[in-house]
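Subject: sequence -> structure tokens, single chain

Hey, anyone have a minute? Need the predicted structure for the following. Not urgent.
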Amino acid sequence: MKNWSTVFRSKMCSVAAEAQDSAHDLLHFERVVKVAALLAKEEGAEWSVVEPAAWLHDLVIVPKNSPLRAQASRLSAEAAIQFLREESYPEEYFASIAHAIEAHSFSAGVVPQTLEARIVQDADRLDALGAVGIARCFVTAGILQRPLYAEDDPFCDSRKPDDLKYTLDHFEQKLLRLPAMMTTAAGRREGERRARVMQDYLAAFRLEI
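Reply:
Had a minute. Here:
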């Protein structure tokens, strides 16, 4: 009998190595799976759906500035099902796994229709928050060679945030909105805790500039 965790981890190890993006490295996938397991246990979700979806949610990594970005989760879902079929994973879970992967993405705008999809979405979004989320945000900014902030108005006090131009704008435009978008009670609680970490960091950042 296959050890599916080992199979999934091995696959994502090769994907992360090829992508060379430390915001989407193997550690990211491991954290998402760990949080998804906690949420699944609390919510009573089907682990046979949640586990592969959590591991394989970014099987196809599309750069943040790519015009194909909104299609990344669909491409990942298609690739995941192909991989699972090759590995002889039980086909009865394929539709639910594909939906959970496609619905996890913020940019895709797909509404999660199942508990398992909601859990994978929350787990992935939680990794964009808190101390880890801060680190991942600046890693991505470095990859995209994006300035840290707008010199004349770093914290969007009198302008609309534009995270295509400035890194700090991403906190206001997206990250701090995520806790309210969590779809499980446990995800919302943890999201609010992690958002407070970010708010404290931004307050310190404001003092230093």
